[in-house]
Amino acid sequence: MGRAWLFSLIPLAIGTGFLAFGVYGLRRARALRRTGVSAEARIVRHDARRSDEGATFYHPVAAWTARDGRACEYPSRFGRGRVGSGFGVGAYVMVRYDPVAPHRFEIEGWDARTVDLLFTVLGAVFTTGTVLVLLVRLLTL
User: Fold this and answer.
1) Is the four-CA dihedral 86, 92, 97, 103 of positive or negative sign?
2) The whole model's pTM is what?
3) Do residues 97 and 131 make contact, with C-beta atoms less than 8 angstroms apart?
4) How far apart are CA 43 and CA 109, in angstroms?
5) Cβ(112)–Cβ(118) under 8 Å?
């Protein structure tokens, strides 16, 4: 019975991790909507990152001038396999950034809330399902 309990911790840990990542992203997006500042930015390049499986993901790097005059240039936290025409190098986009920490920003139309929402839902399903299974096992001992 000891190993069965140990194996139950795997989906619980995965679910908790997914849930934490998703909730963090949703809270961050909500904070940006509430207190963030909009600015026009320009895509200056794409950071190409390779996954362990060999797929390449492109993260657009946006450059803009903050309200206090600071020059900001940061890559998006989300990458995609292809870059759409609206997000090519030289394209003008709108960003919403945190005036206190401009590295916390999102590119409107690129950074989708659906990824964070998907992680939140999957994490909740894994965590709730595992906890229910563990409770049933505890009650039927």
Assistant:
1) positive
2) 0.72
3) no
4) 13
5) no
